[in-house]
Amino acid sequence: MKDNRGQTLLEVMAAMFILVFGILSVVSLVVMMNKISSERTQEVIAANLARESIEAVRAKRDSNWLAMEAGTSGVVWDTGLYGGASPSYDYTATINFSTTTNNWAYNWTPNVITNANCKIYKNSTTNFYTHTSTGGIVTPFTRLVYLYPVCSDGSEKTTGTCPLLTPKIGIHVTVQVQWTERGKIHNKYVEEKLYDWKIK
Asked: pTM to 2 decimals?
């Protein structure tokens, strides 16, 4: 009769190696999937924050049209969609929903995404994202909105206004949302051109 004791030990060691390798592969896969899931979650939040600003600008344009149709004096389609005064208009802002006025408020102070006013907080009561730190939990996100005029010849202005012969017919809205995750800076841009298609 043969003695198989040494062979059994080798089989057990091979089985243990295969088992440990399988477990480590599964753990590695779970860790990688968690990382990817976290990154995708941040991207979805950033895209929604950017889209929210686009819709806020659209709502302001549409509210202006309604005010014009109601005969409100001094209102044109782009009232409130630029800061400053001629010739030094300001086309960068943060947009924040005010629960007090039930309206969108524009802050024309920031001109770069790193400005402290661009920081996004999550309200601990409502879970809304906001630029207001009161009652808010700091998030990794910052947001800045660019509202550049589109002239009737198709050109866009980053400073000044459209020339008299090629008046402003729209706004090129670009929203930049920036966040840092695992030491890497990410940016999400959403753009849309909104026009005064009710030109008479």
From this structure: 0.81
